[in-house]
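User: Just a sanity check before I run the rest of the batch. Below are the structure tokens for the first item. I only need the designed sequence back.
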């Protein structure tokens, strides 16, 4: 299998970080669909579907304590899907993209802070902390 070039790998890492940040914000701030400057969203009881100004699209479907995310990235022309399973304050996630990249990670809520860790088959990994008071 061919190794992606550095700019493509960086774009994949940025897209992964964007999806993780989007999920963290969705969990932390339940008004995500009401922020028009970030994306144009439609919401029902269990489904949130959004398209941003660049044409990137994603949807979030909630079934019990499981969250299903699907999306399309314009820059990389790839589709992706991610499943999140919540156990109390801990959420585990796994995802895969149409170009074969896969990722795993977790989010852990501690008070108003969310600790996020992830790793991908594309070589990206990271840890970041988000707070309702100071952001990420």
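Assistant: Here's the designed sequence for the first item:
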């Amino acid at each position: 299998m061919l190794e992606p070039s550095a700019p493509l790998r960086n774009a994949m890492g940025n897209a992964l970080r964007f999806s993780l940040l989007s999920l963290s914000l969705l969990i932390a701030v339940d008004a995500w669909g009401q922020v028009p400057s970030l994306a144009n969203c439609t919401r029902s009881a269990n489904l949130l579907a959004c398209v941003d100004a660049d044409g990137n699209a994603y949807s979030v479907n909630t079934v019990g304590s499981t969250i299903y995310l699907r999306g399309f990235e314009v820059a990389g022309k790839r589709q992706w899907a991610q499943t999140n399973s919540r156990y109390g304050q801990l959420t585990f996630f796994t995802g895969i993209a149409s170009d074969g990249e896969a990722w795993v990670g977790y989010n852990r809520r501690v008070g108003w802070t969310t600790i996020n860790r992830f790793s991908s088959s594309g070589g990206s990994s990271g840890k970041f902390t988000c707070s309702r008071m100071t952001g990420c």
